[in-house]
Amino acid sequence: MRLLRSTDLALRVLMRLAVVADATPTTRQVAADMEVPYTHAAKVVAELQHLGLVDARRGRGGGLALTERGRTASVGAVVRTFEGDGDVVDCEGTQGTPACPLRSGCRLRGALRGAQEAFFAALDSVTIGELVADPTGPLLLGISRRPGLD
C-alpha cells in the first residue's frame, strides 16, 4: 500500500514536533526541514490542528507544538484519518472509470479490504511518541539544525 503525500507528511510533522518539545517551529520552518512546499505543509498542519494533535499559534512567540493527544496518537488512527476509508480499488467506477464487470462476483475487493485493515491494524499499536525513539529522534533533530534552514 502506498500512502498519500499528505499522510506521509502528517506523520513526519508529528514526529518532528515530538522531538522538539522545548521549541515551537513555524509551519514554514517545518516545510523547509521536510523539503515540501509551504502550502502543502500548511494544509496538513491545519488538519492536524483540527484533529487536536498539534497546537498552532500565530504571531510573535507562536509556532507549532505537539499536544499530549498528538504524542499518544496511534499511527494507525492518523493514517486512517488522512487516507480515508475508501476501498483500495474502485470497483464501482466512482472515480471516472467504468465499473468493473466482475464486481458482483469477485473476491478481490474483499481480499484487498482485509489486507488494508491488516495494514491499519499493524499500525494501531504504535504511537507517535514511540516513532521518535533512538535512532530516529536524533536524526530528526539533525534535520532541524541543517545550515541555511533557520
Written description of the protein model:
A two-stranded antiparallel ribbon has the order 1-2. It is mainly alpha-helical and 150 residues long. The protein contains eight helices and two strands. It is elongated. Helices cover 53% and strands 5% of the residues.
Widest sheet: strand order?
A: 1-2
Major sheet size, sense and barrel closure: 2 strands, antiparallel
Oligomer: single chain
Q: Tell me the structural class.
A: mainly alpha
- Give the overall form: elongated
**Quick check: average pLDDT?**
86
Please report the distance between the alpha carbons of the first and last residues. 35 Å
**Beta-sheet strand percentage?**
5-15%
The amount of helix comes to 40-55%
- Based on CA atoms alone, the radius of gyration comes out at 18 Å
- Runs in which pLDDT lies below 50 for 5 or more consecutive residues are 146-150
